[in-house]
DNA sequence: AATGAATGAGCTTTCATTCAT
DNA sequence: AATGAATGAAAGCTCATTCAT
């Protein structure tokens, strides 16, 4: 990982995304975060005028963009929704394993316990819906009518959210890998 | 709510369960919690020698017991698994509405970001498995073979965990009420 | 050490003397002390109505009594002051080694930083003078005139107090064993 | 005392040295210390990242430097060791009187009961040895052979340490002033 | 004579943030 | 655009003590 040449702002976002995902918004102190990102004390408020909450939003956005890329990489080459969903689940399981089998959903862990709950939850909803819309689009592309497509996408979302939590408690990505079973009429 | 006559320890547990559920382990300060529970500063360590983390475990246990009671109340009078599961989802949706449409799963919100992550996650797993086992027992009682029963129970668990998070982001319990749709071959 | 059958009060005194000697009055918490003495929480104020400070006085007295016994055991069988003083230094060096090469003078460590400084220092002076008087008596018994005897005793006291501190900093009782060199016109 | 224009860090060190010397490491609370030094709460950890123990080391160092200056001022203009030692004792007696006849040795009172005993005692030994070396150098300068010089210096150190404790218990610097008597073949 | 539950003041430390440079 | 010194509120926790039994 050559994250050394990255500009300070990007280093902050990536480190924040990783730490918030693992320990939650309030579980991470800024001084620790700045140390980990090798960023000087005062530079945070230069890049993120509103401080920690701005950084959390940016970190959640960055994590969400990554997920959207994984969705694309899973569904675009697929020949049907089930194949795409299966690939998606396996990719996330691999990600979970790589991160040490500890991390939670980067969006909910970062935004669900913030201080300005209203704004944070609204943003979480926005990101969640973006994800669901994207998967629903793929489902439509595979020929499913809009309402059914949306229901399939939401079902996958619920399973992944729930599965992520269970995988975290078990330190085991197995439940994520087995999610497709639950989709096919399980 | 006449929570005045309750002993101090129980008042602490209930207030802790509510506050942790809404704002997470690190999002709640002990002085605020003690004020809300009308308990003196030093009494926390009398009842919970290890302090905040002991209290969090107790709060998660108490919340889990409540959920197990809701499971019993949902499945025992039912005539089949689907009916029981539907009742369960509706009861949780009502609970979510009553709590202000803000709260997360009381177990994951309390235990997933604590300081002693290993012990906390292990306990979360224990409580989750207790819940899944209980629902699986009901499924078996309704005639489903053990392996199928367990899969049905886990499917319900994943949907509820995921649904809870989505409901929270949306401030809307609708997704919880519509969960049974996803179970019947969605 | 069969300190199990000892009455609670004596167990408290001995444990207090040992802990205060090592870590100072304020460095020892009562709950820790009570645990170490296997005494129930409330029993301290039964035996020592004024609490921690009463216990500290008792512990210092007990330690002082022990020192007076060592003085007697050193000087009574001796045939001259120098022999008695040499034996005394070696006995204290052995005691220092046995206690782990960490402890300070049980009187000053216990009483010099207490909360009621005036009373504590007065008591320390009383115990110190008792020790000096006792050694001076032995010096007189060996034929030295009263004023000379007192000066010899005080000289020994100063060397032992200073030597104890240096031995503590060095974790080495050697300086205590070499004290007699300084007395004979060094 | 115009300690107002002093930088915050130096104010903290001086106040700490004075308070620790009088009441011991654990006998002094940080909030009280910060109030006395007119320093804001959070600034301590800016100047001393490891908090109270860092401050204690700095205070002991500052006190030790002061003592080394007194040693120089006592021995440099002297014409022999005895004269220098006598001046030194009288200067310390005067210091003791000025400080209110309460204080202990600033090094042992500060470092002997700290929480990280090993590191603190090691540092106390380092400061003690610096003091003994310095006085031994003066003794050599006056013509005494190295081994004798060292023994003379250590003898003076022991008497001063012991005398300081006795003077403290008696609220009387007289014993310090009479120390030279003990050196000349007492 | 003896107990342990209960108390609130105080402990050391970390927090997110501001500001002068 | 970038920095690090400075800040006071709040954090979690321990303290010596009291009290009802």
What does this structure look like?
Four copies of one chain form a homotetramer. Chain A is mostly helical and 186 residues long. Chain A has one domain (8-183): Tetracycline Repressor, domain 2, CATH 1.10.357.10. Chain A contains ten helices and no strands. In chain A, helix 4 packs across helix 5 (81-98). Chain A is elongated. The model of chain A has no long low-confidence stretch (mean pLDDT 93). Chain A binds chain B through residues 23-27, 102, 104-105, 108-109, 112-113, 115, 117, 121, 124-125, 128, 151-152, 154-155, 157-163, 165-166, 168-171, 175, 179, 181-182, 185-186, and chain B through 23-27, 102, 104-105, 108-109, 112-113, 115, 117, 121, 124-125, 128, 151-152, 154-155, 157-163, 165-166, 168-171, 175, 179, 181-182, 185-186. The first copy, chain A, binds a DNA duplex (21 and 21 nucleotides) through residues 8, 29-31, 40-47, 51-52.
